[in-house]
Write a structure and sequence with these properties.
single chain, mainly alpha, Helix Hairpins, two-stranded antiparallel ribbon, 2 strands, about 75% helix, rod-shaped
Length: about 220
């Protein structure tokens, strides 16, 4: 146990520390509970987007397989080279319950029209055009999924951090302070008993002297 001076001022200081620690623990528990509610909401959205992404990938792969089998690999590769472009993503930030969370948003939609993909619409089959559309929609979902997954990870990290602080206060700090308070009280009570015992002895001696005739 930490060395403690068994004085009344130290006792009051330790009691004050316990009160502050318990107040901080209550606030951290409230923060943790609020973060858990937000975490579960984000988790639901993450699962929804994950399902959407899986479906989008499956649809795109099916369209690609059909286009390759009907139009041929050469035509598909040629169109793929013509449709290359940049995907613009913006990174900002927000706060959830005081926690800084990065926000990922698309600068512009990766889903383009048949006239802006870079190939001649008259020279491309509807199958290839549909394949391009579906792969661009995958990018659209990936950006949304990246945002929600990043938020979920950040909230999860903060919940773990807050929970560790709650556990440290609840299982280490507060019990240690209570132990110190108990030690100080025990020592002060023992001193008080010793003082009382000495006073009784002094009083008894004084009374004994008074009872002896001629004693000063």
């Amino acid at each position: 146990m930490e060395e403690v001076r068994p004085t009344r001022s130290e006792l009051l200081e330790r009691r004050s520390q316990i009160q502050l620690a318990e107040q901080g623990m209550d606030l951290l528990k409230q923060k943790r509970d609020a973060l858990l509610i937000e975490f579960m909401s984000v988790m639901d959205e993450t699962l929804r987007l994950s399902t959407t992404l899986q479906r989008a990938v499956s649809d795109a792969q099916y369209s690609l397989a059909v286009a390759k089998s009907v139009d041929g690999n050469v035509s598909v590769r040629s169109v793929a080279m013509a449709t290359k472009g940049d995907v613009v993503v913006d990174m900002t930030g927000t706060k959830i319950m005081g926690v800084s969370v990065p926000v990922v948003t698309k600068g512009e939609s990766p889903v383009r029209s048949s006239f802006t993909r870079g190939y001649s619409i008259t020279g491309v089959s509807s199958r290839i055009d549909e394949t391009a559309d579906r792969f661009e929609r995958i990018l659209d979902v990936i950006i949304a999924y990246a945002d929600i997954e990043t938020r979920l990870k950040r909230l999860g990290e903060e919940i773990q951090k807050t929970n560790r602080r709650v556990n440290a206060l609840e299982q280490i700090t507060v019990p240690a302070l209570r132990e110190q308070v108990a030690y100080i009280r025990m020592t002060l009570d023992e001193r008080a008993r010793e003082d009382l015992f000495r006073l009784k002895k002094v009083k008894k001696k004084i009374e004994s002297r008074k009872s002896v005739p001629g004693a000063a």
